[in-house]
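Illustration: Glyoxylase, beta-lactamase superfamily II.
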Amino acid sequence: MNWFPLPLGPLQTNCYILSNEDGNGLIIDPGEEPDKVIQYISKKKLKPKAILLTHAHFDHIGAVDSIREKYSIPVYVHKKEKDWLVDPALNGSQFFLHGQVIRAKEADYLISSEENMVLDGFSFKVFETPGHSPGSISFYFEQDGIVVSGDALFQASIGRTDLPGGSHDLLLRSIHDKLLVLPEETIVLPGHGPATTIGQEMDSNPFLNGF
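Result:
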């Protein structure tokens, strides 16, 4: 499996495009600038199959409808953030974008628990990693040694927890119980910033030292 990051929008939210040997693609967190996503998909001649959301804050969902309608593909989000796509107050755009609001249509599928998923040749595990937001989830592609962590875990940092539904203690517990137990060589693809590894964050992340 191949993966490619596209930092999008003013917050440079990482949209990840995953592709397999059959040319199928998964799009994770298309936050803004749909033309950039479409251009990459066209350049690589990929066949998008689904949009996966690590959570539904505005900077992760801004291009959802454009991409969904372009390729007629379903959107997956955790059930705890079912209403966030359609509600600017919940997804934060009402408060952070100075008058501009972001709304998307409801998700096509709601993820209700941790589970193993198979979508068009992609096999992965869904981990519930709340703390940054109530419905934050991470996608673990075990065979490829990759976990997409959304805004839970970053290189040398962790997600903010001062937004509605956030919890610092819960986020640390999520990271400890769901992510740090993965093999140390596992590549972490975060919602913002560069990729890292589980081992690197165990050794040097100042927010996790002593936890």
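Reading the tokens back as a structure: The chain has a mean pLDDT of 96.
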